[in-house]
Design goal:
Layout (H helix, E strand, L loop, with lengths): L1 E9 L2 E10 L4 E8 L2 H11 L4 H15 L1 H4 L3 E6 L2 H9 L5 H12 L7 E6 L2
Parallel strand pairs: 1-4, 4-5
Antiparallel strand pairs: 1-2, 2-3
Helix pairs in contact: 2-4, 2-5, 4-5
């Protein structure tokens, strides 16, 4: 599965989206949404107004949860354009408490639906 995620932080709104291509089934999916304002408020309280890293990683976490059954026992390549989000998922940790929590959430789905994933930098 080829997975492209993205997030944006503009005008006080946090948008998230993704494109998923299942090469085995020949299907394509597009996802779009917003980070809940309560979550943005909690992150802002902890880290200030530079929230794009959390938003980008949140997009990955939400998609990992939504696709947990589809990803089970499959290979996947994730493309993400935010280095902090990418490294947090690669390492499974971060010096930032909010990013570490999100990375742990991403991998919590591995217990019920393990996958063989690779995370790559998109440009």
């Amino acid at each position: 599965m080829l997975i492209f995620t993205d997030g944006c932080w503009e005008g006080g709104r946090a948008g998230i989206g993704a494109v998923v291509i299942d090469t085995a089934l020949g299907t394509k999916q597009v996802f779009a949404g917003e980070v809940p304002p309560q979550l943005i408020s909690a992150w802002a309280h902890q880290v200030g107004d530079q929230l794009i890293c959390q938003i980008e990683l949140y997009a990955m976490v939400v998609l990992r949860w939504m696709l947990r059954q589809q990803l089970a026992h499959r290979r996947s390549i994730w493309w993400v354009d935010n280095e902090a989000a990418r490294f947090s998922v690669i390492k499974g940790m971060s010096p930032s408490a909010t990013m570490k929590c999100l990375a742990r959430a991403f991998y919590s789905f591995e217990v019920e639906s393990p996958t063989c994933g690779w995370v790559e930098k998109s440009s």
